[in-house]
Amino acid sequence: MGDREKKVIFSGVQPSGKMTLGNYLGALKSWTKLQDDYECYYSMVNMHAITVPQDPEVLRRQTTELLAQFLACGIDPDKNTIFVQSHVHEHAELNWVLCTMTYMGELNRMTQYKDKSRKSEANLNAGLFTYPVLMAADILLYQADLVPVGDDQKQHMELARDLANRFNARFSDTFVVPEGYYPKETARVMSLQEPEKKMSKSDSNEKAFILLAESAETTAKKIKSAVTDSVGIVKYSDEQPGIKNLINIYSAMTDKSVEEIVSMYEGKGYGAFKGEMAEAVVETLRPIREKYNYLLENPDYLESIYAKGAEKAQIRAAQTLEKVYNQIGFIPKKNK
Ligand code: AQP
């Protein structure tokens, strides 16, 4: 654990739709900044995605599309290990061990479960309930030091830390206790239609989110129809959550500070602000979308990335699982 050259990072995105600006600004943008200094494991977490019903054909397609989006955002396959979660069976195995050490009360408190179960009452499955344990397994398998995620994942990160500490205390020092890594203003990008809710790729209202892969016209239209308020002043204030969210997005997409943006629109209305913001967002997304479309035409290349990724990820995952099985008293399998 202590003899590693570089610190380790793990993070994942569900192939439950196309990536939103929330996924990008909350997670992927930090991934690209961290890839030079850390040993990074990035996963298309399809096992998490099936906690809500998925069409098999769509899930298959979305998994490779997600990989193309990772690469288009600047995740370098030569520097990072990029893999499909279900290709490394150790995730399911460690999940089970950790399930036996997680209290029902801990899972009952999880707000993501409460939100998602409200949305899908007809599909209240046990996987949705134990989702945070699988997430802990994902992270702990790689002995990750750091987990770059949006702050909607803070509660899940706490559970991962608690489980690592619990296991280490009950048996012996086995897991690195991971830390969450949250970007400042965009740790929670909000819905364009209901700014008190986070932007989510599975929102039934398509105007609520911006997708990295959608056309420039669609993005601009969505920004122009984003819900604001009747104050009419571009101000960074909790009383104007719609405008605050747009300023945060504008700032993160252009690297202009919030103060700079506010002063740029002094005395101007929301129309000018939204118009120029839309242009800036569209221009920042343009190269990502173009690269994404190019990559989709190269399925063999994408396959070679996730094949190599699974091989590399599995080496590390298997080492951790072997230690865990040994600690808990599972006898090793002997080959005849
Ligand atoms: N609105 C957001 N703001 C900041 N970060 C966000 N993330 C998601 N939404 C926002 C971060 O994106 C990463 C991948 O998320 P995920 O796909 O694993 O699951 P999620 O958090 O449930 O994302 P969605 O878009 O809301 O998916 P659905 O609709 O399928 O549930 C995570 O790091 C997350 O923090």
From TrEMBL:
Binding site for ATP: Q14, P15, S16, G22, N23, G150, D151, D152, V189, K198, M199, S200, K201, S202
Segment forming the signal sequence: none
Protein EC: 6.1.1.2
Top-level lineage group: Bacteria
Binding site for L-tryptophan: D138
InterPro entries, per database record: aa-tRNA-synth_I_CS, aa-tRNA-synth_Ic, Rossmann-like_a/b/a_fold, Trp-tRNA-ligase, Trp-tRNA-ligase_bac-type, Trp-tRNA_synthetase
Cell compartment(s), UniProt: Cytoplasm
Listed PROSITE patterns: AA_TRNA_LIGASE_I
GO molecular function, one term: tryptophan-tRNA ligase activity
Assigned keywords, A-Z: Aminoacyl-tRNA synthetase, ATP-binding, Cytoplasm, Ligase, Nucleotide-binding, Protein biosynthesis
Short sequence motif named 'KMSKS' region, residue ranges: 198-202
SUPFAM superfamilies: Nucleotidylyl transferase
Catalytic activity, reaction form: tRNA(Trp) + L-tryptophan + ATP = L-tryptophyl-tRNA(Trp) + AMP + diphosphate + H(+)
Record-linked PANTHER family: TRYPTOPHAN--TRNA LIGASE, MITOCHONDRIAL (PTHR43766:SF1)
Family membership noted in the UniProt record: Belongs to the class-I aminoacyl-tRNA synthetase family.
SUBUNIT field: Homodimer.
Function (record text): Catalyzes the attachment of tryptophan to tRNA(Trp).
NCBIfam families: trpS
Protein name per UniProt: Tryptophan--tRNA ligase
The species this protein was found in: Peptostreptococcus equinus
